[in-house]
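Minutes, methods subgroup
Present: GH (chair), OT, SY

1. OT presented the first of two proteins processed in the latest run. Sequence and structure tokens recorded below as shown on screen.
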Amino acid sequence: MMNFMEKSALWICKILACFAGITLSLMIALACVNMISRAVYVPVKGTFELMGFFGAVTAAFSLGYSQLNRSHIAVGLLFNRFPKPIQIFLEALSGAASCLFFAFCAVETVKWGLFLYDLGEVSETLGIQFYPFVFAVALGCGAMAFVLLLDIVRTLTGKEPIKTA
């Protein structure tokens, strides 16, 4: 069962990371086009809105994959001074707090997305619906919580982290 969940987490996070890369590429292209069009004629309408939407998706969708690769900043100076059983306990406790945080963020962000859906809230310049991007952030937070949950289990069982390559 654990192997299936690890493979699922890897698959989900890789797909989300690909979408994060696409939205980052769109941000770069939009910024370049906007700079050129601003110098030549007029700036691209709605650039500020699109950069915000794409930035939210890029950040949220890269969370899980970054956690799988251990790309986030981790401070182990204090933990490394304790005996191994206490280190394991503290790492699991830290992972549990992080997992609960991201699970809470995912749930509350879904609630916010549903609220925006009911309101029909749209962006000011382009009239783009907000809720799909809010749900995308919730998905990224949910993926991060899932990876952190698997990290807790791996920490407590002494298994090695998932290999992403």
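2. SY then presented the second protein from the same run.
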Amino acid sequence: MADKAQIRARAAALRAGFEAAGATVAETSVLQPAEVLLDLYGEDIRGRAYVTSDALLGEQMLRPDFTVPVVQMHMAHGAEPARYTYSGEVFRRQEDDTSRANEYTQVGYEVFDRENPAAADAEVFTLVRDAVAHLDLRAATGDIGLLAAAVAGLDTTERRKTALARHLWRPRRFRALLERFSKPTPADSHRARLAAAGDPFEGAGAMIGLRDQSEIEARIAAFKEDAEAAPISASQVELIDDLLNVRETLPVALNRLRDIAVDMPAISGAITRLELRIRALADRGVDVESLEFEASYGRTSMEYYDGFVFGFYSDAQGDLPAVASGGRYDALTRVLGQGNEIPAVGGVIRPEVVLKLEGAA
């Protein structure tokens, strides 16, 4: 097991490589405002972050990763285009698996560039690949944008599509919602009873609790809309399943996706972006003919990825976490940009995992 001095030294060397590629060093605080992360991810983030309280600053979190503070920094002060690198510790609570680290180091490279997103995807992927090329790792890629586009194109209510989109990164919850939305609302369900009921406030007493009448009415209206909505068709559910089951080398996956797009044209734009990315990767010397692609890859990662995702793994030591990973997070810049946005993509390397594999070599 490498000590912290070794990890810091390895992190410094990795970061120096990204600096040589043109990145500016970004420094972020270890303590981050909890409000921002809670707004982004909801209360789920509490289960995997260390939360504390400050009398003046309010709730704070130990930095769960670097991407959010780097995006905030860039959207507030950065010029375009921009490339950043960083290194430092991040913190994740581990309540179910004590063998997983709750404090570890990340070294990252982030690109903010609206000129050519496909080229930026290829740039980040190849720089990270080259930094760990001596370790003989397996590369995996995916694209969250395909599933997001498929959900946006479903023949159902906007409310149901929003609910599904919110849970793209929670496969079991997503599946449960998809199954519920693909069946008629049972006549004896709470939603059906509300849809058939008259004025729920008729004869009611004084309002108590934290919600006012308008909030309750809005919630009831949502229940009624859901109860009256037609089920998502079995054919569309099957197409979603076909999409999620795509797991091939890139050229084969692309052909399968084109076949699915015949009946699901909503994913055509995402397929076009994938084609551009394949060309950009090939232009940088990536063997795209053998590169793995899995449409469902990345669905259990942090929720800001909304396009290209990738990871590098050791098959020789399969118990280790990803040596490196990353992806595109355009939507995050919209959320944090206060009216501004810019396409963005980045990747991180875990130097302690690199050291472990180097020691085993």
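Chair's summary of item 2: Residues 4-20 form the longest helix (17 residues).
Next meeting: continue with the remaining queue.
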